[in-house]
Amino acid sequence: MHGALRPQRRRNTYLIVLHGMREGAVFELTVGESTIGRGRRVDVRLEDEGISRAHAKVVRDGDGSVKIVDLGSTNGTFVNGRRVDAEGLRDGDRIRIGPTTVIGLRFAHPATGPHREAEPRAEVEAAAERVPAPARARSEEPAEHGGSSGYDPAIEVHLHTLRLRERALGRDHADLVEVLETLGAALLERGSAEPAERYLGRALRILEQHPSSSPAVLGRLHFRLGACAQRRGRPLMAMEQLERAQALLAAHAPGSPVLAETWFALARALQAAGQGPDRRIMLARRALDACLGDPKLRRLQARISRWLDVHER
Questions:
Q1: In what order do the strands lie in the sheet with 77-79?
Q2: Are 273 and 267 contacting, i.e. CB atoms less than 8 angstroms apart?
Q3: How would you label 155-188 residue by residue, b for 16+ Cβ within 10 Å and e otherwise?
Q4: Residue 123 and residue 22: Cα distance in Å, rounded?
Q5: Closest Cα to residue 133, out of 149, 109, 118?
Q6: 259 phi and psi, to 5 degrees?
Q7: Are 248 and 222 in contact (CB under 8 A)?
Q8: What single DSSP character describes residue 278?
Q9: What is the pLDDT of residues 23-58, one digit of tens each?
């Protein structure tokens, strides 16, 4: 077990969901113990399959040191790929909870937000001022409005991670793709489609330089870029990206929830462009069928049903 990081001055501590049902969610840890799991009484609630009701706990001491302790979970707790019972944590550590859910640890100075080695782009700073603050670990649901600090810790920690990786690996390394996609998705979710498109486009360009890149990841990036184009009122560009997304996902990840989202997004893009009335209904119905029986897709299922109620006439 490596020693827990002891910051030179007090920092806020965040857990950010990198992969999982709550991808992009940020939880600020209070001093003391914060329990992670699927149960209703935990501090950081993650409902992904394979996570125990009380899976692990993060202990933050008053001096700023942080450690994670597995609570006898069925599928284990992993830090940077290694299964642990208890482990001191450092800024940037990746924690896998159960089979697939990945969260990251980030530190940030409370007065200024996460430490900046370089200033982020102006449009990202503007986006950060408009978006919600992170969830507190002592509350199950994210806060609805930002505090007086005027920045969004979710966006800031993604930017901080990106800068660290760029400094260590350069700007075109394949290991930047994950954080570029996560940052782009977080910005898109908050309505900042233009900067989201830039980060996602950069991730796609990096992947296209590597012949061994996952087709499913390429498909997901095309889907997100299509969503950006839709947000920006560019249905033809959206259709181009979404057609690529559905071809890749249907061939290489036919059971992916993103494929259902892609079909529905393509149906809406066709409707916005005034094209393919029969095809857009077919795509929406295909997306609806893909949602049936999957509790994770209930919200998407409801959106598709409402859309069909309006347009299938």
A1: 82-84, 77-79, 94-97, 101-108, 12-19, 26-29, 135-136
A2: no
A3: bbbbbbbbbebbeeeeeeeeebbbbbbbbbbbbb
A4: 25
A5: 149
A6: -65, -40
A7: yes
A8: H
A9: 777 888 889 999 999 998 999 999 898 999 999 999
Instruction: From 244, 245, 308, select the one nearest 282 (Cα to Cα).
Output: 308
Measured distance CA(42)–CA(302) in Å, rounded:
28
The residue behind tokens 């996460």 is: 114
Strand partners, 173: none
Say how far apart CA 8 and CA 157 lie, in whole Å: 19
Residue 301, pLDDT score: 94
Which among 276, 285, 278, 277 has a CA at the least distance from the CA of 304?
Answer: 285
Q: At what angle do helices 193-208 and 122-129 cross, to 10 degrees?
A: 130
Rg (CA), the chain: 20
pTM of the model: 0.61
- Token code pair at residue 160: 């901080």
- Helical H segments across 68-213, by residue range: 122-129, 153-169, 177-189, 193-208
Q: pLDDT digits over 201-221, tens only?
A: 999 999 999 878 889 999 999
Q: Which residues contact 49 (CB under 8 A, 6 or more apart)?
A: 98, 99, 100
Strand locations in the chain (E): 12-19, 26-29, 32-37, 44-45, 56-60, 66-70, 77-79, 82-84, 86-88, 94-97, 101-108, 135-136
Q: Which helix or strand (DSSP H or E) is residue 49 part of?
A: none
pLDDT over threshold 70, residue 128: no
The answer to whether residues 38 and 51 touch, using CB atoms and an 8 Å cutoff, is yes
pLDDT for residue 224: 97
**Hey, what long-range contacts does 270-273 have (CB within 8 A, 24 or more apart)?**
270/235, 270/239, 271/311, 272/230, 272/235, 272/238, 273/235, 273/236, 273/239
CB 104 within 8 A of CB 161: yes
